[in-house]
Write a structure and sequence with these properties.
six-stranded parallel sheet, about 650 residues, 25 helices, Rossmann fold, alpha/beta, 5 domains
C-alpha cells in the first residue's frame, strides 16, 4: 500500500506519531510564525505512561514537558498561557484514564466557554475488550462503547476517540484547524485508548513535515461598516462595549484611537478589561453587574450600543435589564453567532480591521456635546468614590460598618487593591477569576498604560488563578513584569498545589490572598436573596445543638449546631511555605507595600496573605441581576425579597 505522495513511510506508535506531529505545527499571524504547541504538561498513570509517556520522554528536545500535581490545574496553566498568548499558541495536556482524565473536564469547559485553545490528550480504556472490565472503566450495559471521556463531548469544540491508528491522519489536522480558528476554538480532546497509544503503524513521512496554521483576519464588508457608521452619526447617545475579542485581535490601539478621535465612550467587559490603552474622557471603565455606576448610568441612557468582540453575557447586560427599551445595537465580531446578539446590525469581521475601517468611515465625526457633558458628569461623580474606596492610608472606621466581624484586619479589600494599583507597572499582569476579586477589579482597576488585566469570568472558575499565573509567566518570562494572581482564602484552599510545580521549575509569580475568612461574595449574595447567611464563612460549628457526628447518626432526632462559631484557625502561610513558596503575612498597607517591593523580580513563587476586613465591599454597580429568591418559603423576609426581585425582572427586555 502506498502512503503519501512520496510513498515513503516511517513506523511509529500512535503516541509517537501524535508527539512528532505536534512538534511540526506552527501558527502564523500577520506574518509572524511560531510553534503552535511549544510545550506539554501532564501526570502519568497506567493509562498514558507506556504510550504517551514514552513518546514525550523520547522527544524532550523538541517538546519540553512539565510535571504537574493536579490535572485540572494543568489544564488551567494551559488556558492561562493561551489567553496570555492571545490564542496564537496553546499547550498540550495529557492525563491518564478515569479520574485523571475527568479532572481536566473543568478546564475543558473553561477553555470552550472562553474561546481559548486547549489540547487535551486523554487516556481511555482499551479499544480491544479481551481484558474484561479494566481498572477505572465505566460499564454501561446499554452502551458498551461509552467511557467517562464521553463526558467531554458537550464541553469540547472537537472530540475524537482514536480507536485505530489510521484515525489520526484525519483527526490531527481537524484538531489543529479548530485550535487555530478564533470562531471555533476551545477545548480539543483526543481520547486515546491505552492499548492503541502503543500500537505501531506505517505513517506517510509527509504527515510530519512542518505545517503552518494561519489565524485569519476576516475582512470587513464596506457596506456593513458604512451602516454601522451611519447609525453612530444618527445617534444622540452612542456607547461602545469592548470585549475580549478586541484584545485577541490586537485591536487595542484601534479602539483607543477611535475613542480619542470621536469621544465615543468605550466601556469594557471582563474579557475586554484593558482594551483601552490610555486614560481619557472616552475611557469609561467596566460595564454591567460589576461595572461602575457611572458606566451603567450611561448604558441605561444610551440610544445606540456598539458591541465589539464580546459574547454579551448576563453580567455585561445586567441580565438584559441594563439597556433602554428603544436602544439600537450594532456590532463587530469574528463570530456571526455573537455578532447578531441583541438584534445588532453586524459586521462579521476581525476587530482590528473593522475598527480601522469604521474610523475611516466616520472621518471627523464627534459625539454630540450634550452626551459629552453627561459622560463627564458621571465620571466626575464616580472618581472620588473610587478614590476613597481604594485609599490605602484611610483609616478603617468601624462605626461605618458596625456589622462587620471583628478580626485582626485593619484594611479592606478595596484598600488592598489600592496598594496593588500603586505598585503596578507597565508589563505587569493581574489575574482573577472567581469570588469578589474579578468583580472588584472590573469596577476599579486601571488597566491602561500597559497594565494587563487577565480576568477569566466566562466560567468564573475558582482555582483557575494560581495555575493560570504559571501559564502567563510561561508566556512572558520577563521577571520584571510582575504576574499576580489575586484570590480569596476560599479559592486558595481549593487548589494551592501547583505552588509545588512553580517551585520545582523556578517559575516566579505572586499570589495575593485576601484573608477574609470565607466565601464572602456568595455570603453577600445570600444575604441579598434570603436575608440570612448560612455556610459561607469559615467558622467552627457552635454549641447550639448536637455535634455533627451525633446529628448524622441520629438524623431526624437531633439538630446539629450552626456553623456560627469562631473563625477557623487556618495558617495559610504555613501551607504555602510547606508547598515551596516564599511567604509574607501582612496586616497594614505599609507592610503590604514592603512585601511587594521586596519580592518584585522573584524567580520563585511568592505568597502574600493580606488580612482584610470581612463584609466590607466596594460601592455597588447599581444594576440588577437575575438571581431569584425562593418563590415559596413561608418566610416574610424571603417573600419581600421575592417581591423586589419581581420588580427588577420587569426591567428585562428583549432586543431583537
Amino acid at each position: 500500500m502506498v502512503h503519501g505522495a512520496s510513498g515513503k513511510t516511517v513506523r511509529l506508535t500512535v503516541a509517537q506519531a501524535i508527539v512528532r506531529y505536534i512538534t511540526a505545527q506552527h501558527s502564523v499571524v500577520d506574518g509572524e510564525r511560531q510553534r503552535f504547541i511549544p510545550a506539554a504538561l501532564g501526570i502519568f498513570g497506567h493509562g498514558n505512561v507506556a504510550g504517551l509517556g514514552q513518546a514525550f520522554a523520547a522527544n524532550l528536545d523538541q517538546l519540553p514537558f512539565i510535571q504537574g500535581r493536579n490535572e485540572q490545574s494543568l489544564g488551567h496553566i494551559a488556558v492561562g498561557y493561551a489567553k496570555a498568548a492571545k490564542r496564537r499558541q496553546a499547550l498540550a495536556v495529557t492525563a491518564s484514564i478515569g479520574p485523571g482524565a475527568t479532572n481536566t473536564l473543568t478546564a475543558a469547559g473553561l477553555a470552550t466557554v472562553n474561546r481559548l485553545p486547549l489540547l487535551l490528550l486523554l487516556g481511555d480504556t482499551y479499544a480491544t475488550r479481551r481484558q474484561g472490565p479494566v481498572l477505572q472503566q465505566l460499564e454501561n450495559p446499554a452502551a458498551p462503547d461509552t467511557t467517562v471521556n464521553d463526558a467531554f463531548r458537550p464541553v469540547s469544540r472537537f472530540f475524537d476517540r482514536i480507536s485505530r491508528p489510521e484515525h489520526l491522519m484525519t483527526a490531527l489536522p481537524q484538531a489543529f484547524r479548530v485550535l487555530a480558528n478564533p470562531v471555533e476554538t476551545g477545548a480539543v480532546v483526543l481520547s486515546l485508548p491505552q492499548d492503541v497509544q502503543s500500537h505501531a503503524h506505517d505513517w506517510p513521512v509527509e504527515m510530519f513535515e512542518p505545517r503552518d496554521w494561519k489565524i485569519r483576519r476576516p475582512l470587513p464588508d464596506p457596506a456593513e461598516i458604512g451602516e454601522i457608521a451611519e447609525l453612530i452619526r444618527r445617534a444622540e447617545r452612542p456607547l461602545v462595549i469592548a470585549g475580549g475579542g478586541v484584545i485577541y485581535s490586537d485591536a487595542q490601539r484601534e479602539i483607543t484611537d477611535l475613542g480619542r478621535s470621536t469621544d465615543l465612550p468605550i466601556s469594557e467587559t471582563f474579557g475586554g478589561k484593558g482594551a483601552v490603552l490610555e486614560p481619557g474622557p472616552f475611557q469609561v471603565g467596566g460595564i454591567g453587574l460589576e461595572g461602575t455606576p457611572a458606566t451603567n448610568h450611561l448604558a441605561q441612557h444610551a440610544d445606540l450600543i456598539v458591541h465589539v468582540g464580546t459574547r454579551l453575557t448576563d453580567f455585561a447586560t445586567a441580565s438584559q435589564s441594563l439597556f433602554a427599551a428603544d436602544a439600537r445595537f450594532a456590532s463587530v465580531n469574528v463570530s456571526e453567532f455573537d455578532a447578531i446578539k441583541e438584534g445588532a446590525v453586524a459586521a462579521v469581521a476581525d476587530a482590528q480591521l473593522a475598527l480601522r475601517a469604521l474610523a475611516d468611515e466616520l472621518g471627523d465625526y464627534s459625539i454630540p456635546a450634550a452626551w459629552r457633558e453627561e459622560i463627564a458628569r458621571e465620571q466626575d461623580a464616580w472618581a472620588p468614590k473610587r478614590a476613597a474606596a481604594l485609599d490605602p492610608d484611610r483609616a478603617f472606621v468601624r462605626a461605618d460598618h458596625p456589622d462587620a466581624p471583628v478580626t485582626n484586619a485593619v484594611i479592606t479589600q478595596g484598600q488592598l487593591i489600592g496598594v496593588l494599583q500603586e505598585h503596578a507597572r507597565s508589563g505587569d499582569t493581574i489575574i482573577a477569576a472567581a469570588g469578589s476579586p474579578p468583580g472588584d477589579l472590573q469596577k476599579v482597576w486601571d488597566a491602561t498604560d500597559g497594565r494587563h488585566a487577565h480576568l477569566e469570568f466566562g466560567f468564573s472558575c475558582m482555582g483557575y488563578e494560581l495555575p493560570a499565573a504559571i501559564g502567563v509567566r510561561l508566556a512572558d518570562p520577563n521577571p520584571e513584569h510582575r504576574v499576580t494572581a489575586f484570590i480569596g482564602d476560599g479559592t486558595f484552599l481549593m487548589q494551592p498545589t501547583e505552588i509545588v510545580t512553580a517551585a520545582a521549575e523556578g517559575i516566579g509569580f505572586t499570589l495575593v490572598v485576601s484573608e477574609n475568612h470565607g466565601f464572602q461574595v456568595i455570603r453577600r449574595l445570600q444575604m441579598g436573596k434570603t436575608g440570612r447567611h448560612f455556610a459561607n464563612e469559615f467558622r467552627y460549628r457552635d454549641e447550639s445543638g448536637a455535634s455533627l457526628h451525633q446529628a448524622v447518626t441520629e438524623v431526624g432526632e437531633t439538630k446539629p449546631g450552626r456553623l456560627e462559631g469562631d473563625y477557623l484557625k487556618i495558617d495559610l502561610i504555613e501551607i504555602a511555605h510547606g508547598l515551596g513558596a516564599e511567604t509574607h503575612y501582612v496586616e497594614t498597607a505599609d507592610e503590604f507595600r514592603a512585601a511587594l517591593d521586596s519580592t518584585r523580580g522573584a524567580t520563585h513563587p511568592v505568597v502574600i496573605v493580606v488580612a482584610t476586613v470581612p463584609q466590607v465591599d466596594l460601592p455597588g454597580a447599581e444594576v440588577w441581576w437575575d438571581v431569584s429568591p425562593a418563590e415559596v418559603s413561608g418566610d416574610k423576609v424571603v417573600e419581600e425579597l421575592y417581591d423586589e426581585y419581581l420588580e427588577g425582572r420587569a426591567d428585562q427586555k428583549w432586543h431583537g
